[in-house]
Design goal:
Layout: H1 3-6, H2 12-48, H3 52-80, H4 82-102, H5 106-134, H6 137-169, H7 173-176, H8 178-192, H9 206-229, H10 234-257, H11 271-300, H12 306-334, H13 337-354, H14 363-391, H15 398-418, H16 421-425, H17 429-456, H18 463-469
Helix pairs in contact: 2-3, 2-5, 2-6, 2-8, 2-11, 3-4, 3-5, 3-9, 3-15, 4-5, 4-8, 5-6, 6-12, 9-10, 9-15, 11-12, 11-14, 11-15, 11-17, 12-14, 13-14, 13-17, 14-15
Length: 470
């Protein structure tokens, strides 16, 4: 490298710190949105007089585009610039949040939620990719750790802020809090972040993205209609079948595009990669459904205020944030098999504990133990899952594998939410009975995730991972 080329390195540390700040602010939009909405759902339902399937779509209108377009968002950043896509996604998320806050009816709210999901699919992968391009070596690991910790902190405090806002200012205000975060991210990124892209990026996989989106839409819509009425009619069957056909076409397109695909199928030659993604789908689907239902049931059936429901969930994010780094270091020494088997089993135990929650149970005796055990189980699994996924593929697929695993986690939540119609349709004692049934099903699914880990994940750290760490 010539002296002239090296000259711009002098101001880099200050710019790197500001880039980190911009990425934290941008990504916190998604972390906050994912946790704050749950405490506002009862108020939103009451405000619009929404039915069970409509409540499901308040959640899934966001998760659907996020799940389907997450990989495309990363590919667009590689091709057209990560800073550009981060700013574009953040701006779209802010505009969509304003639309949600001002929505005169449920249709406009759902439109805003779809746009939020698209914005999140653009900003999330590019916030991490921008950090990866800005920092090197140990600084990169430290920056990503700060980024992840800040996201966990945002997720921990968001239900408290959201609950207070719903209680005192109405549910639309939960969307206004996104505006200063987005404005700060855009201003800082525009001023300080350096543009980066992958000059060798392949042609963007638009056909794959379209088929994945439409396929997931068909399956999700069909399952939502079925679950809200528990009847298989011609419409729900046709939508589900059509979605499955489109997803099969998506796989055919991805196979034809080979390494230029949005989801290269060569990665699925690793049994560990297949197993960890199946585990992700099952565990995050079960856990996401409980995190959606728990505050809803506490508010609707147990008489909690939105603020109280937010406080009830606070230990969860705190335990996960504090314990996950320890579990990551443990998995680096012992391999992912043990924590990835134990974590889902502990989550299953937490769900069974939560079946003790009823209209008159105290927080300390019934809710807190369940939340604590759920948090411990997820803390066991979160960090080892990420490292095991990355270790299961070769280096050139590491970024795609990480993005795909994030998309699978959101898809698990998407499908699980689509299956919760019977719970949202119930009231009074029937709501608690439906909630307990959902918890039992969730516990079975979580235990199945643990069994998948035991059967597919190696006992020791991967040679590729150990070589990389050496």
């Amino acid at each position: 490298m010539t002296p002239a080329a090296a000259a711009p390195a002098a101001p880099r540390p200050a710019h790197a710190r500001w880039t980190l700040a911009a990425c934290i602010l941008a990504s916190s939009l998604s972390f906050v949105e994912g946790s704050v909405l749950n405490v506002a759902l009862p108020a939103i339902r009451s405000s619009f007089g929404a039915g069970a399937s409509e409540v499901q779509w308040v959640v899934n209108a966001y998760l659907l585009p996020l799940s389907a377009l997450l990989l495309l968002g990363g590919a667009l950043g590689d091709r057209y610039g990560r800073k550009r896509l981060l700013i574009l996604g953040t701006g779209l998320f802010a505009a969509a949040s304003l639309l949600c806050a001002l929505a005169p009816d449920l249709g406009w709210l759902l439109a805003g939620r779809v746009l939020q999901g698209i914005g999140a699919a653009l900003l999330l992968p590019n916030s991490l990719a921008l950090l990866n391009a800005t920092f090197e070596g140990e600084e990169r690991g430290r920056a990503i750790g700060i980024w992840a910790a800040a996201g966990a902190a945002a997720a921990a405090i968001a239900p408290l802020i959201g609950g207070w806002l719903v209680d005192n200012a109405g549910w639309p205000t939960i969307f206004y809090i996104n505006l200063p975060l987005a404005g700060g991210a855009i201003l800082i990124a525009g001023r300080f972040a350096a543009e980066s892209r992958n000059e060798e990026a392949a042609r963007t996989d638009y056909p794959g993205a379209l088929l994945a989106t439409l396929g997931l839409l068909g399956v999700t819509y069909g399952l939502t209609l079925w679950s809200s009425r528990m009847v298989v009619d011609a419409t729900s069957a046709a939508l589900s079948a059509g979605g499955l056909v489109l997803l099969a076409l998506f796989l055919a397109v991805e196979a034809k595009r080979s390494d230029q695909a949005m989801m290269p199928l060569a990665m699925f030659g690793s049994a560990c990669f297949v197993g960890t993604n199946l585990l992700t789908f099952l565990l995050y689907g079960a856990f996401g459904s409980v995190m959606l239902l728990l505050p809803y049931v506490l508010i609707e059936a147990a008489g909690y205020s939105p603020l109280d429901a937010g406080l009830a969930l606070t230990p969860l994010a705190i335990v996960i944030a504090l314990a996950s780094p320890l579990m990551g270091r443990l998995a680096a020494r012992t391999g992912g098999r043990l924590p990835l088997t134990a974590g889902p089993l502990v989550v299953a135990a937490g769900m069974m504990l939560a079946t003790r929650i009823d209209a008159n149970s105290s927080y300390v005796a019934a809710v807190f133990p369940a939340v604590l055990v759920l948090a411990a189980g997820m803390a066991l699994a979160v960090a080892p899952l990420t490292s095991t996924v990355l270790a299961s593929v070769d280096h050139r697929h590491a970024g795609t594998a990480s993005g795909l695993n994030s998309a699978v986690a959101r898809t698990g939540g998407l499908i699980a939410t689509a299956l919760l119609g019977a719970v949202f349709a119930a009231q009074g004692s029937r709501l608690l009975a439906a909630f307990h049934s959902a918890l039992i099903v969730g516990a079975i699914v979580s235990a199945a995730a643990g069994a998948v880990a035991w059967l597919t994940v190696g006992r020791t750290p991967s040679p590729k991972r150990k070589a990389a760490e050496a």
